[in-house]
Amino acid sequence: MRTVIYPGSFDPLTNGHLDVIQRAARLFDRVVVAVARNESKQPLFSPAERKTLIEQSTTDLPNVSVDLFEGLLVEYVEQQSGHAVIRGLRALSDFENEFQMALMNRQLNEHIETLFMMPRASYSFLSSHLVKEISGLGGDVSPFVTPEVKEALAAKLGQACVN
After folding, report:
1. pTM exceeds 0.85, yes or no
2. Is there a contact between 4 and 33 (Cβ–Cβ < 8 Å)?
3. Which residues are tagged catalytic?
4. Which residues of 14-38 are buried (b: 16+ CB within 10 A; e: fewer)?
């Protein structure tokens, strides 16, 4: 069984993330969406909340599971019997950091490959940060997130859920 790990903070999950998950699910037998515990980013949602939102948004993908992780990614990939890491690239600006991380992970474990996947062009501008900012200012984020994420953002930020 070919397993890929899709790590990230997913604070919150966007349709760009979901696009990568859906396409990875077509390419691999098993996709593990690994929610990173990274408190230095000052997340809006707790790791458990992020995990639940991703689970709710991927119920139609039977080969996708969601887990929490901390520590070295390569160690987590080994624990999950993973073959590769998949990373989304929105723009050229993402590439440099992702490339450095991929090379470092290869130094740590040469058996784990990193694959880069670009989301659909319509999501190339999308980021969790922008979604939180728009929602916090009362804007409609429904084109950018699932209904579950939209409701969670509205509840967390004290906004009425815009239809």
Report:
1. yes
2. no
3. 17, 41, 90, 128
4. bbbbbbbbebbbeebebbbbbbbee
Domain ranges in the chain are: 3-124
Report yes or no: 75 and 34 within 8 Å, Cβ to Cβ. no
Q: Which CATH number fits domain 3-124: 3.40.50.620, 3.20.20.70, 3.40.50.300, 3.40.640.10?
A: 3.40.50.620
Q: Report d(CA 160, CA 138) in Å as an integer.
A: 8
40 CB-contact burial (10 Å; exposed 0-12 / middle 13-18 / buried 19+): exposed
Cβ burial, residue 1 (10 Å; 0-12/13-18/19+): exposed
Q: For 61-109, how does the pLDDT look when each residue is reduced to its tens digit (9 = 90+)?
A: 999 999 999 999 999 999 999 999 999 988 766 788 888 999 999 999 9
